[in-house]
Amino acid sequence: MHNLTLRFTRYFAFRFSMLLIVGASIGFCHGHSVQAATKFAATADQKHFPIKKSWGTISALPLGLELKLSDSESPKSVTIPRMNNRVKTIYLSGDTARKPLTLKPGIEEWEILLPQSLTPPVTVIVEFKEAPTLPVKPSVISETADQQIVLDAKDAVVHGTLLRYEPQPHKNTVGYWANENDWCEWKLDLKTPGVFDVYLLQGCGRGQGGSEVQVSVNDQKLKFTVEETGHFQNFKERHIGKLKINQTGVQSLQVRPVTKAKNAVMDVRQIRLVRQ
User: Fold this and answer.
1) 75, 149: one domain
2) DSSP per-residue codes, 248-267
3) Which CATH number belongs to the domain containing residue 118 in this structure?
4) Which of 134, 165, 187 marks a domain boundary?
5) Of 19, 90, 157, 235, which one has the fewest beta carbons inside 10 Å?
């Protein structure tokens, strides 16, 4: 990410109105602006919880969140911060059938729809596939022992007006890519330079293929054409080419549309860089 310090400063100045309350206020720095403010991710520890909301309290679980609605509120829905987590299921505590509640992921917050007959106080359980992760500071992905850098959708930093991470099990993707000016990036930490095969796990609806997209790291660029897969959540892994990364340390892999062919660009679930 270029000029990281300056972007942090501008970002906090614009979005510091969103606060995490833990005795004192903690800056919630995963906001969104038309000016493409950066969103960050870092593993949350218990000091970031509980989070107080108008309807009650959000507490952390080992693999999820517990939402306690107070008896003074009867909302039709509740919102939680955008998490860097894959959602497994959401249900009412005490519901033995664990009937899933509907999740509507926004850019900054996720909305959970509640049953109309609900009478607080109640508790909602949000189950994740990993420990809860709040957007607090950059998530930096390192190369694995088998010489791969795996960039998952949940760790993407999105920029623009519509693009977002969709955490539902059938999605788990960077989606809503209807604005061709929106783009995303991942931060990676490279110990040694090298040439990498680039694999993209992408989906694209019927009749929506053909957009041209650029993947870049620093001054190295790779272009490919989005392939129609029959559905935006029908993902296909493609080898789209090679990237030579000459620098070491923390840097940014960016994905930007060059042209949008139809209504939306694509969905992206994962990018893999495999060292040659």
Assistant:
1) no
2) -EEEEEEEEEEE--SS---E
3) 2.60.40.1180
4) 134
5) 19
Q: How many structural domains comprise the chain? A: 2
pLDDT value at residue 22: 34
Average pLDDT, rounded, for the chain: 86
Q: Which of 106, 134, 162 is the last residue of a domain?
A: 134
Backbone angle region of 31, left / alpha / beta, with phi > 0 → left and psi within -120 to 50 → alpha: beta
Contacts of 156 (CB under 8 A, 6+ apart): 165, 174, 184, 185, 186, 268
96-153: pLDDT as tens digits: 999 999 999 999 999 999 998 888 899 999 999 999 988 777 689 999 999 999 999 9
Backbone dihedral angles phi then psi of residue 14, each to the nearest 5 degrees = -80, -35
Note down the domain range covering 44. Answer: 4-134
Q: pLDDT tens-digit profile of 192-222?
A: 999 999 999 999 999 999 999 999 999 999 9
> What is the SS3 assignment for 258?
strand
Helix (H, G, I), strand (E, B) or coil at 46: helix
Pair 135, 167: CB distance under 8 Å: no
Backbone angles phi, psi at 21, to 5 degrees: -105, 115
